[in-house]
From TrEMBL:
<keyword id="KW-0413">Isomerase</keyword>
<keyword id="KW-0285">Flavoprotein</keyword>
<keyword id="KW-0150">Chloroplast</keyword>
<dbReference type="InterPro" id="IPR045892">
    <property type="entry name" value="CrtISO-like"/>
</dbReference>
<dbReference type="InterPro" id="IPR036188">
    <property type="entry name" value="FAD/NAD-bd_sf"/>
</dbReference>
<dbReference type="InterPro" id="IPR002937">
    <property type="entry name" value="Amino_oxidase"/>
</dbReference>
<feature type="domain" description="Amine oxidase">
    <location>
        <begin position="169"/>
        <end position="446"/>
    </location>
</feature>
<keyword id="KW-0520">NAD</keyword>
<comment type="pathway">
    <text>Carotenoid biosynthesis; lycopene biosynthesis.</text>
</comment>
<keyword id="KW-0809">Transit peptide</keyword>
<keyword id="KW-0125">Carotenoid biosynthesis</keyword>
<dbReference type="InterPro" id="IPR014101">
    <property type="entry name" value="CrtISO"/>
</dbReference>
<keyword id="KW-0274">FAD</keyword>
<protein>
    <recommendedName>
        <fullName>prolycopene isomerase</fullName>
        <ecNumber>5.2.1.13</ecNumber>
    </recommendedName>
</protein>
<keyword id="KW-0934">Plastid</keyword>
<keyword id="KW-0472">Membrane</keyword>
<keyword id="KW-0521">NADP</keyword>
Length: 474
């Protein structure tokens, strides 16, 4: 489910990132972001079905139709997200740790910056509860957050919601032709054409540090096969737990990282199925949407196996599957502890058991799917840990207590001089467009620190102290 592939504004960061490398990807527009299949209630005895249409007005009209008594609240809540999005969409998006750039944007776009600053500490529930009272609708808003943040509205920063709830209508959800793997392929091509060198199968075991005066400085990396690369700046796109636990070492854990671990915990991983199914399963059913979310019991929304995610990209790009077949990628949050300590036989048997139950639940929404399965590949949180090299297979950090909106998340600098983090362990967190923002910010900050971009060093230090203080006390 790709955000950020729009062709206008400043928030289409995936388009911009590829363009910076002279690349463009062909995409297929999705008519909806997601089709929600939700439990029956007194108000919705046949279940609550909502499609998030590409056109904002169509989505709002559909939701108002399901909750007519909350029409005003629905419009007010979603419209407020546009205030954030429209502000973000006028700024040049770079490092929030660079005071010269920030003040420059304040001068150019004072209203947009003040609007954003006014939401910096706000979470979604602060706004939704202001306008909406119906508990089922508030649970729907929780789910609207959960499917990308894996936490409820109370723990989801409004800044992120503004991006997600609006970009899906503004730039739309667009699927890259040839599959999502085309994104890194094109990035690698663009980088190589510009003189960079990508080293594959290079497992970083250790980030090398040296004491320089009172400071610890990162000076290089050592790979598992013993090769060493030295550099002025080291950027880790692994999770913070992997970066600091295994590559820096627990014995050198800076206090700011200890504070991070108190504020954030690991989100669950996923149980994942990749199925090949007969195309006939979907034939004669009109235009079937690519993304679906299925919840059978509102009280289990956040539990393992409580929310099912389904993505069927060959419906948008048939070249991804053999003729007459479709891909069904179905996944659900799951914890690594559910899969530890099993014998090989028990592990395999559990995969069979859980996938069979999962397929039954899919068959209730897509009748005939169970009969139509011709291929099945199952992954567990252990698979995520092994192949993505993510601690406990985690989807990323989630707040362990109510966060101070966007201010709680670390940005790109770390307590180790010359070491930066990018990716979903940094602001604004999970999401492809989100991690591209973190990449843009990181590149800008590094460029300032090595003298490639202008900066005001005299103001930098106090500003960083201020940001660290706010974060460590949030
Ligand atoms: N849009 C969707 O449908 C969807 C679905 C799931 C996830 N996502 C998002 O995708 C985002 C991806 O974020 P990301 O880029 O921060 O994480 P990532 O896990 O995709 O990238 C980390 C990279 O670092 C590499 N790596 C890890 N440890 C290493 C080591 N020791 N040595 C060398 N390389 C190492 C990994 O191989 C991987 O390529 C997530 O935030 C998630 O939200 C999106
Ligand atoms: C500093 C201070 C205080 C102040 C200042 C003010 C200002 C200027 C501010 C600014 C800010 C900014 C710039 C910000 C930015 C932000 C951003 C960019 C954000 C972004 C975000 C994004 C996101 C979050 C996204 C997400 C997404 C996701 C996660 C997705 C996911 C998906 C999945 C998982 C799939 C699903 C599937 C199905 C349903 C089937």
């Amino acid at each position: 489910m790709m955000f950020g592939f729009g062709d206008k504004g400043t928030t289409n960061l995936l388009t911009r990132c590829l363009a910076a490398l002279g690349k463009k990807i062909e995409t297929v527009p999705d008519q909806t972001q997601v089709f929600y299949h939700l439990p029956a209630s007194e108000a919705h005895p046949n279940g609550l079905n909502v499609q998030v249409w590409r056109k904002y007005e169509d989505f709002v009209a559909e939701l108002c139709d399901r909750f007519p008594h909350e029409s005003n609240g629905i419009k007010a809540f979603y419209d407020e997200n546009w205030r954030i999005f429209n502000s973000l969409n006028t700024l040049e998006l770079k490092s929030l740790e660079e005071i010269r750039y920030l003040l420059g944007e304040f001068v150019k776009h004072p209203i947009a910056c003040l609007t954003l600053a006014s939401y910096a500490t706000t979470n979604v529930a602060d706004i939704s509860r202001k306008y909406i009272k119906d508990p089922e609708l508030l649970r729907f808003i929780d789910l609207e957050c959960f499917i990308w943040s894996t936490v409820s509205a109370e723990l989801t920063p409004m800044m992120n919601a503004g991006m997600v709830f609006c970009d899906r209508h503004y730039g739309g959800i667009n699927y890259p032709k040839g599959g999502v793997g085309r994104i890194p392929e094109l990035l690698a091509e663009g980088l190589t054409e510009r003189g960079s060198h990508v080293v594959y199968k290079a497992n970083v075991k250790r980030i090398l540090t040296e004491k320089q005066g009172n400071e610890t400085k990162a000076v290089g990396v050592e790979l598992a096969d013993g090769r060493v690369y030295r550099g002025k700046s080291i950027v880790s796109n692994a999770t913070r737990w992997d970066t600091f636990e295994s590559m820096i070492g627990e014995d050198q854990l800076p206090p700011s990282e200890q504070a991070f671990r108190e504020r954030y915990k690991k989100a669950p991983s996923f149980f994942t199925m990749h199925l090949g199914v007969e195309a006939s399963v979907f034939e004669g059913k009109g235009e079937v949407d690519c993304h679906h979310v299925i919840v059978n019991d509102w009280s289990k929304l956040e539990d393992a196996y409580g929310t099912l995610f389904v993505s069927m990209p060959s419906l948008l790009d048939p070249s991804l599957a053999p003729p007459g077949k479709h891909i069904v990628h179905a996944f659900t949050p799951d914890w690594i502890d559910n899969w530890q300590g099993l014998s090989v036989q028990d592990y395999e048997a559990k995969k069979e058991e859980v996938s069979a139950q999962f397929i039954d639940r899919l068959d209730a929404v897509f009748p005939g799917l169970k009969q139509g399965v011709v291929f099945k590949e199952v992954g567990t949180p252990r698979t995520h840990r092994r192949f993505l090299n993510r601690n406990a297979g985690t989807y990323g950090p989630i707040p362990s207590r109510r966060p101070l909106g966007m201010l709680s998340m670390p940005l790109n600098r770390t307590a180790v001089q010359g070491l930066y983090c990018a990716g979903d362990s940094t602001f604004p967190g999970q999401g492809v467009n989100a991690v591209v923002f973190s990449g843009f910010g990181c590149a800008h900050r590094v460029a300032c620190d090595i003298g490639l971009e202008p900066t005001w060093p005299a103001l930098d230090k106090p500003f960083h102290k201020f940001l660290d203080y706010v974060r460590d006390n949030s």
